[in-house]
Amino acid sequence: MSAHLPEQALPGWRCAVVKVGSNLLAADGGGLTDRYALALAGFINASHAAGRKVVLVSSGAVAAGRALLREHAPAAGDLAARQALAALGQAPMIALWQSLSARPVAQVLLTHDDLRNRRRYLNARSTLRGLLALDVLPVVNENDTVAVDELKLGDNDNLAAIVAALVDADLLLIASDIDALYSADPRRDPQAAPIARVGALTPEVLAMAGGSGSVVGTGGMRTKLEAASKAAAAGIPTVLFGGRDAVTVEALGRDRLRGTLIDAAATRMQARKYWLRHAPAAAGCISVDAGAAHALAGGRASLLPGGIAGARGEFQRGDLVEIVDAGGKAVARGLCQYAAGEVRRLAGRHSRDIEAVLGYSYGSEVVHRDDLVALETAGGMTV
């Protein structure tokens, strides 16, 4: 079907999340196959070679586990058995991607609870950022062996959108056996037309994917649009493309898309900075010296321990806190990597001393520049 889709420019990106569905990895009635994964891995390898970062969200563990047991595999409706199959299939699924990857592969298992809990959210983000800094390919999947609700949903599309926001990705790419969003279900309506670009996910657009009980809607196009909506809210565009079409996958490596592009609601920086500026902050705050206040006002510096004069009130790791100058004037807001008591102990110290002072380290920045918004420019104008 992709032959009917016009080729368009892929949005510029340096970091992307690629989601691959189980329909592209599981052979008909059998185990995992590299039939379609080979081309997708080639795109990821080429992206790495070009200096780009990629996080892979991959389904297929349950199918792999079932294939290993063959005729002894339990019934699909048994939730506990499916959890066991997921545990059994994780190893071969990771092994498949490692066999195709030019870089080392790291397995990262997450649940939605990991991403709702602020401390675990920061830990997951630190891990993924660390892996990307090491030029490793993180392969993310839901921890189906313990995540009962998530396994019943079977929804790695929405997980991919959450991961895209987690790592501040520039782009979410969703590969499936459907090559685009259509005006109706193309499996039922021969008049269904592919849609090359969606400016906004309106109710009319969502209706094209069908209801939750439709063939396309259940774990299909409906969840992909839900994921695109989450990504758009974070300022991340989404592309939907057919992972079974080698020509389409090859074109991605040339920054060309034959599929559907779903625009972000805003640029990534605008959306994130807006949230940081307007979300409720913790009761406490961090006070900084004049040098740090000036650097933070420029909007491109991280807050390091050396520029901190102290901390007032109480806040926890991951809380949104205000950063104030010596006169108590707020100059920035950001997500703090350390609790208030830890910040007080680190005040005025060098980043290299963090582990010696605390006995552990969450990173050299107290507030990373990606998690910080300046409330004033260096010239004193509010932004």
UniProtKB/TrEMBL annotation:
Single GO MF annotation: glutamate 5-kinase activity
Ligand binding (substrate): 59, 144, 156
Superkingdom in the source lineage: Bacteria
Broad class of enzyme this protein falls into: transferase
Gene3D superfamilies associated with the record: Acetylglutamate kinase-like, PUA domain
InterPro entries: AceGlu_kinase-like_sf, Asp/Glu/Uridylate_kinase, Glu/AcGlu_kinase, Glu_5kinase, Glu_5kinase/COase_Synthase, Glutamate_5-kinase_CS, PUA, PUA-like_sf
Enzyme Commission no: 2.7.2.11
Binding site for ATP: 19, 176-177, 218-224
Every PUA domain range: 284-367
Reactions accelerated catalytically: L-glutamate + ATP = L-glutamyl 5-phosphate + ADP
Keywords from the UniProt entry: Amino-acid biosynthesis, ATP-binding, Cytoplasm, Kinase, Nucleotide-binding, Proline biosynthesis, Transferase
Pfam families from the UniProt entry: AA_kinase (PF00696), PUA (PF01472)
Pathway assignment: Amino-acid biosynthesis; L-proline biosynthesis; L-glutamate 5-semialdehyde from L-glutamate: step 1/2
Subcellular location: Cytoplasm
CDD domains linked to this entry: PUA_G5K
Family named by the database record: Belongs to the glutamate 5-kinase family.
Function description: Catalyzes the transfer of a phosphate group to glutamate to form L-glutamate 5-phosphate.
Name of this protein: Glutamate 5-kinase
Protein's organism: Rhodanobacter hydrolyticus
